[in-house]
Amino acid sequence: MKGILKEEYQVQGMRRSVEAVLVVHEYSHPHILLLQLGVSFYKLPGGELKPGESEEDGIRRLITESLCAENSKRVDWEVVSTLCSWWRPNFDNCLYPYICSHITKPKEQKKVLLIQVPEVYTFVVPRNCKLIAVPLFMLYGNSQTYGPIISSLPVILSQYNFIFHASFAPAEITSQKICLNSEEKSIFLNISYINAIDAIAMFRG
Q1: In the chain, fewer beta carbons within 10 Å around the N or the C end?
Q2: Number of domains the chain contains
């Protein structure tokens, strides 16, 4: 990666990337959808932005490319808010949620965005990936397994008040209202039981 990032930086400058936080639930406890590659590597859906591409357009494109079937109904993924920004100061694997004053030319900026999920949706994932829903209590403080960005999400999401409207049998879909700091602005996120996610996740060749 170090060599690729160096070559890319020389041509395009700082890399800009985005990742999506998609929230679901099992038994009224929030879970975050992650892509699992191999036995022990986990990542949020997302990736690198194209030159001149906005964060909103980029995350919509990346979610569509990684989680949607080619013939599926087009979804205009709504960006609810930017949860956090992470910086890569050098050509290595370390990212930080801040940038020091002596770093004048960071090599990457990564933004993590909260995305509105449709009430009902069928996710399609590549064959080398597995789509899993991980509860917040398993992510919290567990940077050894999930890395610093994903393990920090429970703290960041604590600013939201999760209100679960209905409780159905497993494998059914319901919805959830989330309010930020008692403000008037509120959003609805899709909430699905893990059994439902397992049932609707298909594989793309």
Answers
A1: C
A2: 1
Quick one: which of 5, 13, 43, 29 has its CA closest to 138? Answer: 29
pLDDT, tens only, 59-83: 999 999 888 877 767 788 889 899 9
pLDDT exceeds cutoff 70 at 196: no
Any idea what the CATH number is for the domain that residue 103 is in?
3.90.79.10
pLDDT for the residue 195: 36
Q: Do 171 and 196 form a contact (C-beta atoms < 8 A)?
A: yes
d(Cα 21, Cα 145) in Å, to the nearest integer? Answer: 18
User: What is the pTM assigned to this prediction?
Assistant: 0.79
Instruction: Determine the structural domain holding residue 62 and report its residue range.
Output: 2-204
In Å, how far are 2, 42, 155, 199 from 97, measured between CA atoms? 20, 19, 13, 36
171: left (phi over 0), alpha (psi -120 to 50) or beta: left
In the numeric block, which tokens belong to residue 1? Answer: 């990666």
First CA to last CA distance, the chain: 25
